[in-house]
Specification:
Blueprint (H helix, E strand, L loop, with lengths): L2 H15 L10 H20 L2 H7 E9 L3 E3 L1 H10 L11 E16 L2 E14 L7 E12 L2 E14 L13 H10 L4 E8 L2 E12 L2 E2 L6 E2 L4 H14 L29 H5 L31 H15 L3 H10 L46 E2 L1 H12 L6 H7 L4 E2 L5 E2 L4 E4 L5 E9 L2 E8 L4 E7 L8 H21 L2
Parallel strand pairs: 1-6
Antiparallel strand pairs: 1-2, 3-4, 4-5, 5-6, 7-8, 7-17, 8-9, 10-11, 12-13, 13-14, 14-15, 15-16, 16-17
Helix pairs in contact: 2-3, 6-8, 6-9, 6-11
């Protein structure tokens, strides 16, 4: 056969196979193929990590390019090493996947999955300042001894890219979003969308570190979004009859700074989860640098990370287990949250961690906690935290009484809001309500909303000091009138 006939034959097979519907974007196969695409290009191509190509390319690779002809694996790697990657110091070409263009179709033999076809579009930047070129591609991935390998790749339709101006929101156009993030100096943005009680969509934009595009499974430090996880661990233990919301914490733990203070014997889990402990946010922010009660527990609201650390130590003392072990048993393992950790360990893929930045674009050192903090520094992905929020929304693992306590106002905060147990409560004009929490540290700004009645929700992760500046546009786009109400509540004087 001539090369032309072979190519026509391959294209016929591919487009015959894709006559059936593409797979759901939340399916495991879709996520797997996107992950392989990310390794091949975001890590391999964009950073000249040749080893990624050696691992992911089949020995039988056939690569068809409408400008450069046909290559096998040997020629492809030779051209890459001696072309784009010959001088990494000056190389600037970058490939960016147009995520909304991606279509993936499974391939079966006798009912057994053996491969997948990936269709899409991608952009190529010759330099950071240049306008991109665009091309279409079709990749055939097959399972070889249990590993996914790229066996056939077609790259065609190369041309100058033209952004089509439409009336649609920028959130319907990934290229416009990337441009908007650059204008706002937000390196990485993760969005999770919950509808009908399910995590419907995951979107991750920007770069993890300079030059490396963020994959859908980027790992974020989510700061105080740690607190809801600690709260749900506790509430599940309450639902199991192993912990009491209103029993004095003193029975299991007393910090040496306050052990002799009578108030410590009245402090309960309910006070902690609703931020009515009387503790400051952090003891190191006080003049004495010691923990102390600033008012009588349950007399008023005051946000406190110290309270959640107090709770962590009490839980660990009673159950003789570290918090991350309790979390694994009660939440992470049941929900298959494989990328979520209280502590830094060898299970974390450091290449997927979104580095935090200050407002001037200077990176912070990555926090690598060796012990759990009940209030701060949880590491997770948009997908994992979305699974957690769906579970909370549906009341999984919670008794009816505990769920009702969680969503019932325990104390007023500000501007008509209240804290329940572990979450702040927003009440809307249409009678709906949302549970919410945020996270704010150096390098982190995160925010979540879930609606138990209407089964929808939204997750926003950013990795920069002032990432909050993108909240308004995102809230209004995804939450509509309730998004506007949230903005009004938060900006009211």
């Amino acid at each position: 056969m001539t090369k032309k006939i072979i190519l026509s034959f391959i294209i016929t097979i591919i487009f015959s196979a894709i006559s059936k519907a593409q797979i759901d974007k939340n399916s495991e196969l879709y996520k797997t193929i996107l992950s392989k695409d990310s390794l091949l290009f975001n890590v391999g191509f964009n950073t000249c990590d040749i080893k990624q190509h050696e691992n992911l390319l089949s020995e039988n690779l056939k690569f068809y390019h409408d400008k450069d002809g046909v290559s096998d694996k040997t020629k492809f790697l030779y051209d890459l090493k001696n072309g784009l990657c010959k001088n990494q110091g000056t190389r600037q070409v970058m490939r960016v996947l147009v995520k909304e263009s991606t279509e993936i179709f499974p391939l079966y033999r006798n009912g057994i999955l053996y491969g997948a076809i990936q269709n899409g579009e991608h952009l190529f930047y010759e330099s950071k300042e240049s306008q991109p070129g665009s091309a279409k591609f079709t990749n055939v991935w097959t399972l070889e001894s249990g590993d996914w390998k790229l066996t056939t790749s077609l790259s065609f339709g190369h041309q100058a890219y033209e952004i089509q101006k439409t009336e649609n929101s920028i959130f319907e156009n990934d290229i416009e979003i990337e441009k908007w993030l650059k204008e706002n100096n937000v390196p990485t943005l993760g969005i999770g969308i919950i509808n009908e009680g399910k995590l419907q969509q995951i979107k991750v934009y920007g770069t993890l570190t300079k030059g490396i595009a963020a994959a859908y499974n980027a790992i974020f430090n989510v700061a105080s979004l740690t607190k809801p996880v600690t709260a749900i661990i506790t509430l599940r233990l309450v639902s199991l009859g192993k912990w009491d919301l209103d029993e004095p914490i003193y029975n299991y733990w007393a910090d040496s700074d306050v052990a002799d203070n009578p108030r410590s014997k009245r402090l309960t889990t309910r006070h902690i989860l609703s931020h009515q402990t009387g503790f400051p946010n952090w003891r190191y922010s006080t003049k004495s640098k010691k923990l102390d009660f600033q008012f009588e527990p349950v007399s008023q609201y005051q946000y406190s990370g110290e309270g959640f650390e107090y709770l962590r130590k009490a839980l660990e003392n009673k159950f003789n287990k570290k918090l991350n072990q309790l979390a694994s048993e009660l939440i992470f393992e049941p929900l298959e949250m494989t990328d979520t950790h209280y502590i830094w360990n060898n299970m974390i893929d450091e290449k997927r961690v979104a580095i935090g930045y200050d407002t001037k674009g200077k990176p912070y050192e990555t926090v690598k906690n060796k012990s759990a903090n009940g209030a701060d520094d949880l590491l997770t992905t948009v997908e994992d935290y979305g699974k957690f929020l769906v579970s909370v929304m549906n009341g999984d693992g919670l008794s009816e009484k505990v769920f009702d306590d969680m969503v019932t106002a325990q104390v007023a905060t500000k501007n008509g809001k209240h804290f329940g147990l572990g979450f702040e409560i927003y009440n809307f004009n249409n009678g709906d309500y949302a549970l919410s929490h945020g996270g704010a540290d150096n390098r982190v700004q995160t925010l979540v909303f879930i609606y138990p009645k209407t089964k929808k929700g939204l997750t926003i992760f950013t990795n920069v000091d002032d990432g909050y500046k993108v909240y308004e546009k995102i809230l209004i786009h995804y939450l509509g009138e309730q998004g506007k109400e949230i903005i009004e509540i938060e900006t009211a004087k």
